[in-house]
Amino acid sequence: MYNPRFLTEEGDLIAVDIDTDTLATFEKGVNPEYETALEGGYGSVTPYAPVADDGPATPDPVVSRFQAKAALLQMGLLDQVESLMAGMDAMTRLAWTEAVEFRRSSPLLNSLAPYLTWPDGTALTEPDLDDLFNLAQTIEV
């Protein structure tokens, strides 16, 4: 494990690369590995780096698990996400399978996005994530 970094300003979530294709997230008070990472067991933890302020705050999009998975399916990404989740730690897999809703600002979702590609092989971008959430919000049961 290497490249530990804080994913939140509060320091309650640390991401660690297990290898070039696998990422683990450790949450304070939830994962025992959090303390190991915090104490430098995987190297120095990089401080949280906030995203530059791009203007006034906008509401944080929230979608149901069904809406999120339906949007991923429509865009050809669901199988890839399911495969990525299969390689994650138990807490991350639990969050994926049991979450009732997903927020666009989720540190977990944002930390996993760089590991996804479109079916044509191009990398997913921040605007792509916004578009996925916008699509998901239009899906009704």
Summary keywords:
alpha+beta, two-stranded antiparallel ribbon, 6 helices, 2 domains, three-stranded antiparallel beta sheet, 17% strand, single chain, 141 residues
Topology (elements, then pairings):
Elements: E1 2-6, E2 13-19, E3 22-27, H1 33-38, E4 62-64, H2 65-74, H3 78-86, H4 90-98, E5 101-103, H5 107-112, H6 126-138
Antiparallel strand pairs: 1-2, 2-3, 4-5
Q: What is the gist of this entry?
A:
The protein is α+β, with helices and mostly antiparallel strands. The protein contains six helices and five strands; from the N terminus they run βββαβαααβαα.
Structure description:
The chain contains 6 helices and 5 strands, in the order βββαβαααβαα. It is of the alpha+beta class. The strands form 2 sheets. A 3-stranded antiparallel sheet has the order 1-2-3. A two-stranded antiparallel ribbon has the order 4-5. A hairpin with a 2-residue loop joins β2 and β3. α2 packs across α6 (126-138). The model has no long low-confidence stretch (mean pLDDT 87).
* Count of distinct strands: 5
SSE string, helices as H and strands as E: EEEHEHHHEHH
Radius of gyration: 15 Å
Cα end-to-end separation? 41 Å
Main sheet specs? 3 strands, antiparallel
Strand order, biggest sheet? Answer: 1-2-3
Overall structural domain count: 2
**What's the mean pLDDT score?**
87
Label the structural class.
Answer: alpha+beta
User: If helices are DSSP runs of H or I spanning 4 or more residues, what is the number of helices?
Assistant: 6
- Spans of at least 5 consecutive residues with low confidence: none
Shape: globular
Report the helical percentage. 25-40%
Range of strand content: 15-25%
